[in-house]
Structures are given as structure tokens and as C-alpha cells.
Amino acid sequence: MKLEQLLEESWRNELKDFFKQNAWEWINKKVEHAYAQPFCFPPKEQLFNAFSLTPISSVKVVIIGQDPYHGEGEANGLAFSVNSGIKIPPSLRNIFKELKSDLGIERTNTDLTDWAQQGVLLLNTTLTVTKDKPLSHADFGWAKFTDYVIQKIAMKETSVVFILWGKHAQKKKLLIPQKHHLIIESAHPSPLGAHRGFWSSKPFSKANAFLEQPIQWG
């Protein structure tokens, strides 16, 4: 099965021209080989979870991360999210700390599906990873795919908030015209980088102030 067949229909239609490119053929080849090996995350059926939960017509916010969590059982196809019952990763713990500081919301649910269902596309720049090897699939060509996705979103007439956390996400800034979109960028929420400007960046209140219909972040 071609990977595009796993995509939600509106995204499949929106990205159809990319699927004709050699870059997509390369991604398919690399990803199929990766899933033929043990411990490729997220599970294949959750690879495009972010797209399934957030059709392009409903995208209001894009939060861009790096690559999926590489611990077993963590990645679920939504950037920064883990399923309920999984130990909270340090980056997500820091996101929740900033959420409390920003809006006074004390969130404990680590599954961010409710954000996705409200129009928050939780997009990693690379969509797959091998267990315990961060950025192990950085050469798969996923960056070209996610560049194309972001360009398509940026073409929307409705205004979108792009939240760029960390250097990998901030590289996407050049793809986004700022005439009617809002870009919020800061350091990555990882404990290694949060002190460089993630704390007190107030991304959640800034996004809600910009949107006609605010996100319920709790």
C-alpha cells in the first residue's frame, strides 16, 4: 500500500501533486523499509494521525515539532503528544508548565487529540524515527513533504497561527507569508533549550488573541 492511501481524503487531494514527485517515491521507499524493521515509531497506522484528526479545512493552528518521540510506546502521530497512561515526556511537561503560567490552565491529559480536533495540526518536521535514535530518519526526505504541507496551509485564505518551537521548526518560517498569518516562535520546550526563550513566551494566549474562535487548551 502506498503511504498516501493512509492519508485523510482532503489532505490526499491537497497533496496529490507532491505524490507525483521523485521526493515522495524516495520517502515511500525509505519508510517502507523502516517499518519492515522492528521499532519504527509511531505505529504505521498512526503515521498520519495529525492529518486524520485535523483536515486542512479545519486547520487554525500549526504547532511544529522536530521528530516523533523515540521511546517505545510514546509516539502517537501527534507532535508532542503521548497516549494516556504513558509517562509524560520532559518536553510535554514543560509545555504544560508554560500553559499554566500563560493561561492558568493545569492540564494533565498527555493525549493532545482534543487539540487536534479543534484545528491544531500537531506536525513534526520528520514523521518517523527508530527507537532510541532521535533524528534517525532525518535523511528520509520528510522535510520536503512537511515543507509542501506548510505551503499548502499558508495558501489558505483564513488566518492561521504557526507556532515554531526550536530550530528545526523555525526553518519553516520562510515558507509562511505573514500578511494574514501569525507566526509565534521560541526555543524548543525541551529541558535542554527551554531556558533560551521558551519560558514566558505565552504562545497559547497569543494564539487565542489572534483567532476568532479560541482553542480550549485545557
Provide structural commentary.
Strands 3-2-5-6 form a four-stranded parallel β-sheet. It has a two-stranded antiparallel ribbon with strand order 1-4. It is globular and about 45 Å long. The protein has helices spanning 9-14, 22-35, 49-53, 90-103, 113-117, 142-154, 167-170, 203-210; strands spanning 40-41, 61-65, 120-124, 129-130, 161-165, 182-186. The protein has eight helices and six strands; from the N terminus they run H-H-E-H-E-H-H-E-E-H-E-H-E-H. It is an alpha/beta fold and 218 residues long. The N and C termini lie far apart (37 Å).
Helix content range: 25-40%
Distance between the termini: 37 Å
Name the helix and strand elements from N-terminus to C-terminus, one letter apiece. HHEHEHHEEHEHEH
For the secondary structure, the number of strands is 6
Mean pLDDT, to the nearest integer, reads 96
Q: What is the 3D form?
A: globular
Structural class: alpha/beta
Rg over alpha carbons: 16 Å
- The proportion of residues in beta strands is 5-15%
Spatially, the strands of the biggest sheet line up as 3-2-5-6
Low-confidence parts lasting 5 or more residues at pLDDT below 50?
Answer: none
Largest sheet: 4 strands, parallel
Count of individual helical segments = 8
